[in-house]
Fold each of these.
Amino acid sequence: MSSVLYRSIAVLGRTLVIANTLAVLVLLVCSVFGGFILSYDKVSKWWIWGFWTSPIMYAQNAIFANEFFGNSWSHVIPGSNQTLGVAILKSRGMFSEAKWYWIGIAALFGYVLVFNFLFTIALAYLKRENLPHVLVCQNSLSSSLNLKHSLNNPCSLWERPSDSI
């Protein structure tokens, strides 16, 4: 899931600096609102959209549901009708229903489809930046071709022709 997310960010950013900045911002938002640093009941009402849109939240809830509804956590706490796994989930502010395993799987699969679609559309319709791509030193070029080189301009930019690719 993370590979398609960051691949989409790279295509949308179109330059290394912008893509890295967007990737760090997305990583920060997903980490903070994923449910481990801030649980659902600790997130402010105006930031609740970050919680529900974070892919980490769905993955984490699926992992927690898979673990804490397993046989090793199914012992009933004395004096309560809750299992040990449900009590731990409630104490951490996580969702305490077993259905969150399948919700998390479905949400992650949906994120993969959405980000692959976004990646494909962005590759098809966004124009690439016309930046120079190769720096060739005339010294190394002339020595490999046995030519004389100019001392005033030892390195020059060689660009790909604009009609290619």
Amino acid sequence: MRHTGEKPHACALCDYRAVSAYHIRRHVATHGQGALLKCDRCDYTTRWKDHLTQHKFRHDGVRPYACHLCHYATNLTSRLAAHKRTHSDHRRFTCDRCDYRAHELATVRRHMAKHDAVKPHACRLCHYATAYRSHLKRHMASHASGKQYACGLCYAYSTHRRTGIKHHLKIHIADGACATGIL
């Protein structure tokens, strides 16, 4: 039934219809019926036990869902599914202005901002402006007096960017200066 488009299960409280009884049970909970489960460490509440379990992983720092192709791990199955698509050559979302392709629609939308002259994220301290909030955040660190990441092997290198220190430490590893290889 899943691929026919037929939805034989109906909600008794609204017009919602679903392929399976499972989806109806989850939907009915959105109408306020069913026990509300609460996290014992914060104010988070949900009607679904699996959501509460995944939420608690965040408190514990547990990332039980791991990619079998790389070192990526997360506390959410949905994030793991999205990550696994990055290992695929199939990029179904495309930019309509160039040949850029991506696994996620949101990534293509972020990319498309490059084509526009609009740069809504501007630095208050200089003339820098960007289409991306994350780029502005990274730029703002350049105005800070202390650099956040410093090399503990040579003490000669420091940077505002985590990727910069990772790259620098790889040079030490290649030179044999770091026997552990831990970055």
